[in-house]
Amino acid sequence: HFLKFPAGKQGPLRLVFLNCQPCLPTGRLLVGNWTEVEKNAVTIFGKIIRREIPADIVYEDDLCLAFRDINPQAPVHLLLIPKKEIARLADAPPEDQALLGHLLLAANKVARQLGVQDAYRVVVNNGAGAGQSVFHLHLHILAGRPMRWPPG
Ligand code: AMP
């Protein structure tokens, strides 16, 4: 990453991703405070993709990666993420239509691989108000227990 930012961690800042392969797909110019930037610039999931931190990976292809949630909410709780950095579903541009379709088909593939293809739930939390805590788009795949409706 080629990042430009002020020395201190105080106040608003301007952060530009230059010539950075992982950052190029979104080509984002982030302007905000450190909390927002840290949320968006370096997520835990990006580190998992780059194998900088460990994860229990159960599926991988050219476009996405699935691994077990560290704090499972069901006997089977996986996270399926695109390798492309997209912060939230709401930030996915129209040209990612095929990628988003790929994620749903991959979710089914993963569910089948784990033997839960007949009863699983896919959840996307979009935005902090909806419970999103990691700002790299991810599908939760939950299975192995009865699912209530509506979800909480
Ligand atoms: P969300 O709240 O929808 O953004 O979901 C983020 C999920 O990521 C939560 O269910 C966390 O338990 C999970 N999580 C956070 N860090 C890790 C990690 N290092 N490995 C696996 N799952 C993680």
Protein topology:
Layout: E1 3-4, E2 13-17, E3 29-32, H1 34-41, H2 44-49, E4 57-60, E5 64-68, E6 76-82, H3 97-113, E7 120-123, E8 139-143
Antiparallel strand pairs: 1-2, 2-3, 4-5, 5-6, 6-8, 7-8
Bound molecules: adenosine monophosphate.
Task: Tell me what the structure shows.
There is one protein chain. The chain is of the alpha+beta class and 152 residues long. Helix content is 20%, strand content 24%. It is built from three helices and eight strands; from the N terminus they run βββααβββαββ. Strand 4 (57-60) and strand 5 form a beta hairpin. The protein is globular. It starts with a strand and ends in a 9-residue tail after the last strand. The model is unreliable at 1-7 and 9-40 (pLDDT under 50).
Question: What's a concise summary of this model?
Answer:
The chain is an alpha+beta fold and 152 residues long. Helices cover 20% and strands 24% of the residues.
Low-pLDDT residue spans: 1-7, 9-40
Structural class: alpha+beta
Bound molecules: adenosine monophosphate
Backbone shape: globular
Distance between the termini: 38 Å
Count the DSSP helices: 3
H/E order of the elements? EEEHHEEEHEE
Number of strands: 8
Q: State the strand order across the main sheet.
A: 4-5-6-8-7
Rg (CA only): 17 Å
Q: How confident is the prediction overall: mean pLDDT?
A: 83
Bin the strand percentage.
15-25%
